[in-house]
Amino acid sequence: MARPLSGKAGQFGAAGPGKRLTYKHPERGSLSAAILGTIHYAELWQRRKAPSEPWVPTGNIFTAHWLGDTLLYHWKDRLYVLDSYDIITDAEISQQILPAAKQFGQSDETAEVSFAYPPASWTVTDIGKFQVEGIEGSGLRLQAGAVGRFLHARGGSGNEGQALVVEDYQEGGGGQDTAWRGWLISWDELESVK
Questions:
Q1: Which pTM value belongs to this model?
Q2: How far apart (Å, rounded) are the C-alpha atoms in residues 2 and 193?
Q3: What separation, in Å, do the N-terminal and C-terminal C-alpha atoms of the chain show?
Q4: What is the pLDDT of residues 23-67, one digit of tens each?
Q5: Strands, E assignment, 138-188
Q6: Measured CA distances, 29 to 32, 51, 85, 194 (Å)
């Protein structure tokens, strides 16, 4: 059973196609756009770390809204404005991202692990697994039920405040592997949900 969210996170999670979001972009100022598509992500975890241990839902559901050229993406206590992306391959993930994700995971997610991914250097902040619980609207390149791994990272020297969100879908899993770039913003910078 999903835990209900309150405040702005609750309003954001309850919004869907046709609603309008107004938010403060770190470079472009106050912007307002209609939601075209909505994704609900279920967080997955393992009771113990072992290859044979199944991944099960934690009960946490997080939401992302597609605005046509930007994805506003909520995960845990973070809100991202993701306004550029690359479609990436499994080979690119294996070479450029997976080594950092493994190193971060082996440290019990406590080590300061940095890596290069164009056009900058990034520091891993979170890794894990998710399932697409549901989708609504248009413009989305995935299907309900798709399962994938994620890596979240913050910008390093010269790109502070910026964020990288990588979605690595299981083969045949109904999603497109993507590296999203953008910004981490505060909930105060989400000005309204109407």
A1: 0.93
A2: 21
A3: 26
A4: 999 999 999 999 999 999 999 999 988 889 999 999 999 999 999
A5: 147-155, 162-169, 178-185
A6: 10, 46, 20, 19
